[in-house]
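Q: Convert this sequence to structure tokens.
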Amino acid sequence: MPFKDDASLLAAMARDRDRGAFEGLYDRHHRLVYGLAFRMLGDPGEAEELLQLVFLHAWERAGSYDPARGSAAAWLAIMTRSRGLDHLRKRRRGRGRELPAEESLLEALAGPAPAGPDPRVARLVAEALRKLPADQQAAVDAVYYQGLTQAEAAKALRIPLGTVKGRLRLAMEKLALALGPWRSEW
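A:
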């Protein structure tokens, strides 16, 4: 049975444990999830492991998806980010020191990544991020892609914690406005 939208796929996964629906969700969003995982972790193998974990979690928790709270792509991206941050924290603890500096967010989005996200989505996000002031770009990069806590980002950026929080809030508001018209395409 063909599914018209992601909410239908997730409902079929939750209700019927429909493998075809799972495959459809994976086909639609695996590039987005892998691209985000790769940008966070910087390692193709680790990114593939994270991709598998995210879709396993989506399979297990499909019933928790609420389309009123956001798109399936956003739901998957949030899961990816959360599990990616967990992985970065474990990696950091395992080495007993800070992670080396990651590539900047803009360079990561502009550069090629194996099986990266849908090129349209990457282009839209890169354009929206380029329009942010440099200080907001730095805060987004530190917290969302390097996996630093807000307190760690404040220390790394040498600014007060409240300033990091304010820059992130402003950046997220601007990104939501800039990307809002295209959310239905994801």
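The two ends are 21 Å apart (CA to CA).
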